[in-house]
Amino acid sequence: CLHKLLPSLLVAVSSALFGFFSFLNLQVVNGMEIYSMKIDSKVTSRFAHNVITSRAVNRGNVSKEVFFDVELPKTAFITNFSMTIDGVTYPGTIKEKEAAKKQYEKAVSRGQTAGLVKASGRKTEKFTVSVNIKAASKVTFELSYEELLKRQFGKYEMFIKVKPKQLVKDFEIEVDIFEPQGITELEAEGTFITNELQNTIKKTFSGKKGHISFKPTLAQQRRCASCSESVLDGDFTVRYDVKRTTPDNLQIVNGYFVHFFAPTNLPKLSKNIIFVLDTSGSMSGREIEQTKEAMLKILDDIKEDDFFNFILFDSEISTWKETLIKATPENLDEARKFVRQISAQGLTNLHGGLMRGIDILNAAHEENLVPKRSASIIIMLTDGQPNVGVSNTQEIEKAVKKAIDGRYTLYNLGFGSGVDYGFLERMALENKGLARRIYPDSDTALQLQGFYDEVSNPMLIDVELNYPENEISDLTTNNFKHFYDGSEIVVAGRFVDSNQNHLCVDVRGEGAHDALSYTTQQGAEQTAQAFQEQQYIFGEYIERLWAYLTIEQLLEKRITATGEEKENLTAQALALSLKYKFVTPLTSMVVTKPEENGNEERIADKPTEGHAIFHFGVSFLTTFFPSAASPLYHTYASLPTWYTIDGDPHFIISVPQKKDAICFNINENPGMILNLINDPVTGITVNGELIGDKRPNSDAKIQNSYFGKLGIANKHLDVKLTVTPESITIENGDEKTGFTWLDSVTLQQAGLTLIINRKKNLVLSMGSGASFVVVLHQVWKKHPLHQDFLGLYTLKSDKLSEQTHGLLGQFFRPIDFTILEIHPGSDPKKPDATMIVKNNELTVTRGWQKDYRRDPTHGVDIPCWFVHDNGAGLIDGIHTDYIVSSLF
């Protein structure tokens, strides 16, 4: 995957899928003046074409570097980018990802950062490019992207995140909307809008046209009258809806059509909903309390005609009731009492929880306990990965798909960064649902409730929009399990005869009381009459809408496809991406930028949801990982944020916001004990004792050392765990229990859960929900130098408090750094640079360390910036501050 090639001179611009507008943020070096920023959007029939333009001038006497940062919605496809410097334009070109990759493979070895586009938030991804410009020179950046606006809760939404970081002489947001059906409402608001700024938002709409503009003066941008700080820092949102005199609207232009379906005033279907909730130990604390808060609010919204139940899964499976229960006031009160007493402990039997929920739905339908005309939904929430019962994700997917058999919709909510999101997404898509990330934050309960609100009002089931097969080719998805109130179904297609100007559509669906069935038709002349306002139209908008929607759905189908089917889907999506110049996960944009030693090519590469980097929770892994056949391997290999101590020990710290890593070594003698993690709030500490080789290496200036003993303690539980390559000992008060690595054990006691996987690893969850994996690294017994050693992996470090410290614990909080002045080092393959981190200026070297998550035997080389001298300047204090006298 292109996104893995972090060190590179090339940068790839690709796209993802969500939201609508952009976060504009132009960072400036001293001497640079950004004198103009403009966001121009034209929306025609829900399809948006957006152009972001920024202009800067170097007011200094020497060359300066200027950065252009834009946060795009994940649902957007970039279509163009260019830089114009002193009248010379440097355009971006879109190519197949593999072809673009070959252009910069040589540059990768030079150790510079690649990736113009990175995941940056819940709904956005950041596009960044920088360029040096000479004194008195001007530069213009222009970025274009397109997307189809989705309708939710009865409105289309454009989201703009504004943060220019300085006063801008000419700052403007301008939105023109044209809807043939007519606009019924239009609103705009900003989180940063003060009373002084309120009148700068201009809004007008009449008939088919709407206009929004926001153009604050320099004085209005100031946070205070005498300061230069800008008040423009926050979210700017535009919402609107269209007139609906009929259930649908059909538009035909130049051989393509789009069909919008959103009937109103239908009676709501009753729903049968199963909540399948993860209550394993990792959900303890804030996560389980927020889940309970959300469930209590959801119970307030459940209609009396609905049926529902709760399934809880940890090491065991428990249910509130044995069957679906009608949502009477008495039953809802009882359900609230049940939710309030939910607690978290044990492991994660995800398969058992889902299968129990499906069985209950099946039984309810077979026994006619629920109305025939009703919508059946399963909502599953988990924060981890299956590690007890059936834990192979492929087996779980097959079992769930077979049990549901197309009858119900499955929605999977992944809590935090510890989930295997790809697994959750595949399983949901195979069962006509979708997956959604839930972010651990103060608004987690609102996120859960917000998702429920999206699916809480089904109006139709089994919706089909049928078109004449002999007239239409290349049709997008035209059958849908559910239609929800406030949403919209969109179908697009291409005519066999490009001159055809009329279409007849047969619409069918099942409603609350009876079937919905009617025929609608439209002629191109009616569409043409509606589109006489040419200034609102951009290019062949319906053709591009069709291409956008087709690519989006082909990429989604690829997620669950295999073999030849996946190859065909990939080929189709790639061909369309190249034809319409969309930056998708299959294409890259090559951006040429001028430098003093000649032009450089950089590549922008679109991140995908499964590889997004999140700032919530971190993990710490060391030395050795289980085989790919082990269920735990999938946990290790999929977590995006990680820290390693590898072997000697070499520390690797991932820095998600940079999509990069920092590494350093600790050179100490065998017998020394290092404090790795210390959390005074939860009472958890982790210390590691070093061991060396069997005999010193006379040729080495510094001797190898490894972790030969780990001490993990929770003083609140009065529990201590001592782990060596030979044995595992648990002390709980005066009681002591011992095991060896030859044992296979599952143990739960006094807030502690322990699983020993014979000769491989142990999984430990304690107290706050913080979870650790200790792995055994075994070497050949007759090896002349090396001996067995241990590794530690933190699965749920976000369960530790903000006061956590230690040699590794200090990095569980976000860390940022800046790399400057990259230049050749003593090794031609490893350039040196200056790193600014924690207000320190360090000399660092681009190098590689081993990551054993993907290849437990040989490891994979991970590029990182190496900090010399035992991490001096990076770690707090000096490394000897972390030496402790005993394991506990």
From TrEMBL:
Pfam family, one: VIT
Coiled-coil residue spans: none
Swiss-Prot/TrEMBL keywords: Glycoprotein, Protease inhibitor, Proteoglycan, Secreted, Serine protease inhibitor, Signal
UniProt main location, coarse: secreted
Domain VWFA stretches: 272-455
Domain VIT: 18-147
GO BP terms, alphabetized: hyaluronan metabolic process
Role this protein plays: May act as a carrier of hyaluronan in serum or as a binding protein between hyaluronan and other matrix protein, including those on cell surfaces in tissues to regulate the localization, synthesis and degradation of hyaluronan which are essential to cells undergoing biological processes.
Family according to the record: Belongs to the ITIH family.
Name of the protein this chain belongs to: Inter-alpha-trypsin inhibitor heavy chain H3
Species assigned in the record: Serinus canaria (Island canary)
Gene: ITIH3
